[in-house]
Amino acid sequence: MNRRQLIRAGFVGLGAAILNGCRSGQVGKVVKPGDQQMVGSHAAGSETFKPLVDEATSSLLARHATPPPQFTTVSTPAGAQGPEAVARPPMRICFVAVENKSAEEIGDFKDQIYQVIDTRIVETHVFQPVNKRFVDAGLEQTRMRPDQLFLPANMRAFVAVMEQQGQPFDFLLYATLTSGTTRQNQNYQRDYLLTMEMVNVRTGEYDKQSATLTKGYHKTGLFK
Fold this sequence. Notes:
Elements (H helix, E strand, L loop, with lengths): L2 H20 L23 H17 L7 E6 L5 E6 L4 E10 L8 H15 L3 E3 L2 H11 L9 H13 L6 E14 L2 E14 L5 E12 L7
Parallel strand pairs: 3-4, 3-5
Antiparallel strand pairs: 1-2, 5-6, 6-7
Helix pairs in contact: 2-3, 4-5
């Protein structure tokens, strides 16, 4: 092999080594129950939203989970009549929206938060959610945004439309995600707040529940 061929072979080998050294790949891992969850390095993730949703939803629904018994008149074997308690059907909740007012774009987590809250409602066996397709259709027909439904006249109009669809409900539910940021040089702390607001459409009674979670973000190599 002459000198020119040797140099050419050397460059080819060096190029192959560089390419092999720079080659990267991506792998995935199924996170099983009990495994440590991945923590978002720049924004909130499942480690933030899951506990917020669980705490706010369970606390709010628990306060309304014991409705007063209903009574009906029944005949006894002796012919006398008297009241008897009967099981009340599940109270229906119209969950209209999750509004993001935080400093971050939450992307596909917005729909996931909605679905998780909707599932928590079903799991109570006391409440029953109105299907989101009917909710969206009702909002479109009334031409209202979800946050406009808290005006009494708008709420009455929306309730009437939902009843026309065969989807009456007892409570209106609305969720809002907000955040507050505290900065220290290049590090910062963000306080996330999920607020659930619920209105009894029959009585106008209003209730709300919040859950908060604080998370710190740090630049690598800086003092923590």
